[in-house]
Structure formats: structure tokens, C-alpha cells
Design a protein that fits this description.
single chain, 224 residues, alpha/beta, Rossmann fold, 9 helices, globular
Amino acid sequence: MKLVKNIITIDGPSGVGKGTLAFSLAERLGWNVLDSGLLYRLVGYLNCKEALETTQEIVQFLNESKIRLITNFNEGICEIEINDRVLGKELRNENIASKAAELAKEAEIRNAIIKIQRDAYDSEQGLIADGRDMGTIIFPEAALKIFLQASPEVRAERRANQLKEKGMSVIMHDLLEQIQLRDEEDSNRKISPLKPADDSLVIDTSNLSINEVEEKVMENFKKL
């Protein structure tokens, strides 16, 4: 397999800094970002808001729709253009996230999403692909694969700070338990389990700043 130098994959569990690193690298390199989790949130949105109740209905809609990911550097987020309508903040709520996690277990839905993810790569412009199976399943040809990790306690604290900034109350014990349960589910699922690709650069972000993580990645990128 020929390795592709202008794809960088970033995998890992929630709360390790994948999204922040993806946008930081993309701005530095002038590349696009693929937020793969947002595509699964789109599936949750279709189920919750568009009354597409069955897997078959959702897959048919995805296959028949024009879907494009947009890298919004001003907001520091990805958005999805679907049939000439742009969705961004509408996809970012907890109910949709929960439904997305449930539907992501369906093989038919994952297969439909894989095609959209791979179509996000434009050979003329590089791509930072952020997710849980970017280096193992979606872009195994990426020359640089990053796997971020951090202790559940650190990740729970980061998530708590995010929620507090939104004015939400937090019970740390429950938050830590949720993170540990999600880790177990992601690592043990039959389809696309969360794990580093064999040739991944594994970085523990527990005690590193985003700048320190970025420099580690760039050091390896410059060696390609």
C-alpha cells in the first residue's frame, strides 16, 4: 500500500484533545479537517429531528444526499452541508450525541458513513482526520497516524470544565463513570473497535499542552 503524506489521522477516546489538535494542525498546514464524530451526530439528528426512524431510512437518505464537510476556522468547528443546508451547532447537543452513539453500532450506517468520510479527502489539499478509527479503517494509507490518550480522570476533569463553562452542573463521579463505560464500549465493539493502528505515534496528553502535542506531531510530520 502506497502511503499518502497529506493525510494525518488522529484517533483516541473522548477528552484527549483530538479536535483541538486537528484544527491547530489544519491551520498550520492549510489543510481541511474531517470531524468524523460530527457525521455520526448527523445520523442522530436525522433520527431525532427529521423523523427517519429506521436504519434503512437513514442509510437511504445518506446515500441519496449531497453531503460535504466544511472546515470553519473562524468558529473552530466543522459543519456539514447537506442538500444545500448547513448544519453546525444544531448537531451539538447531548440528546443527539447519545442517539448517534447508539446508531453508530449499526454496520449499515457505518458503511454509509465510511464513503462520506473517504470522500472528504481531496488529493489537492491535505486532510486532518479526527475520530476513533481513522488510522485503522478509514485512511490506513495515511503516512502519519496519531493516537492520543489520557487518563480517565484527566479527561473527566476537562469535560467537567467544558460543561461548567456552559453553565451546566457536574457530578464528577458520574462523569468519570460515563467516560469509563464509553471507553469500554468503544474498545470492545465488534465493528471498528477503538485501538491504535500498528504504525501509530501514541501520545499521552495527560500532562501536555496542546502546543507540546502539536510540536511532537510536527516533528514526525517533517520526517516524512
